[in-house]
Structure formats: structure tokens, C-alpha cells
Amino acid sequence: MPTRTTILLDPASRHAAKTLAARLDVSPSEVIRRALVHYRNHVAGTPADARRRRLAALDRLVALFEGHDAKAEVRRLKEEDRHW
Fold first, then answer.
1. Domain ranges, ordered by start, for the chain
2. Tens digit of each residue's pLDDT (9 = 90 or more) over 18-31
3. Could you give phi then psi for residue 47, rounded to 5 degrees?
4. How does DSSP classify residue 10?
5. Which of 3, 17, 40, 62 is least surrounded by CB atoms within 10 angstroms?
6. Vertex 18, ends 12 and 35: CA angle to 5°?
């Protein structure tokens, strides 16, 4: 459950948070949360549970695309585009 924390930002940090928030269409608070998690992962490495979730997602994608001929799909899409 989220808890409220107050932080003081200098003008440059506040501007950066607001600029990113507008670009990402999220709140400045969400920008700061994402930045903290990203920096933590950069410094300390991605947590094991996040790595497991990513691996499970990759395994699901591999299973979904098993037997799929990517070259044939690209050829089909190019052929469709040619008619536009």
C-alpha cells in the first residue's frame, strides 16, 4: 500500500519531473517512483522476482509464436502494403 512521503525538489528537479510527466502522460509523483525503481535496478540489479516475471513473459511469447514464419509474415504485410 502506498504511503505519503514529502520530498523537496530544487527548481531544476521539479521542472524535470513535470516535463517527463507531461511526456509520459503520468503524474510527477509517478515519474519520481519510476525513476527511483529504475535507478535502484541500475545500481543494485533487477530484483529476482522481476527477473522471474520477465522470463515468464518471454516464455509465453516464445510459446505464442512457436511455428510462426516471420519471413512469410513480412512478405504478406509487404504485399498488403503494395495495394495501398
1. 11-82
2. 999 999 999 999 99
3. -60, 150
4. -
5. 3
6. 85
